Amino acid sequence: MQKLASAMCLALLTWACGGGNTSSNVKSPGDEKSSKTKVLEAGADVLQDKSPVRKLNIYLDGFHFYNGHLQGQMEAHHYCSKLNEDLTQCVIYDGNGDSAKIMGVEYIISETLFKTLPADEKKLWHSHRYEVKSGTLIGPGLPGVAEHELMEQIVTTYGKTWHTWHTDQDIALPFGNPALMMGFTRDGLLKPELVNDRDKRFGISTREKRSQRADIQAPPKLPGADSWETGEIIQLPALTNHKHEHVNQNSFKGEKPQR
């Protein structure tokens, strides 16, 4: 049986996955929408074509941390579109409700494409092996069979993630430079309270998902990914001394990878 379950369920069910049960981290400054704005939005919703947005039909929920700052952890809601079998693009939000803020983007490539990257480029990418096998990456709302097949596809992939708005730090506006994010690679790194809070909101058990995914084949990750594990800190330099200063490059100096 071909991977029919995941294809159909992703197309039909991902938008029915838990509505607005995760609020945005911040309330941004600005006046409430005027009646004129609401009318314009309603008209645009009906009249304008939104083909690229409609292709964001895969919903993934997981966790990231700042490269070089392991304690800077947050939940990330990914709305993704597969461009082909080897390349996926995602818009990342800090929630799944109406007030969710776009935190950044993630590009996901296959093992085949990762092998073609130059060595310096590979340092920007993180593996998904542990995220899948540990159960910390989920496809909210998908039936178990469909989610399992989706994870079979993701387990060997690699992601490059940049966060452009650090709402996890209660920053109400997108200050400063983007930050390179990484994924977790082993037990004991991800804060349990983040997982417990996520599981409670979605009504799931990460522990059970981990057990259910024991049969997913996961070959060793390729050399070059997860550069933080070898002490490689890659971040853009800080632009200002705003409240986001603790997520700029100065904050990462001296923090060593945990073994």
TrEMBL record:
InterPro entries: OBAP-like (IPR010686). Residues 201-259 are annotated as: Disordered. Residues 1-18 form the signal peptide. Residues 201-213 have a biased composition (Basic and acidic residues). Keywords: Signal. This is DUF1264 domain-containing protein. It comes from Fibrisoma limi BUZ 3.
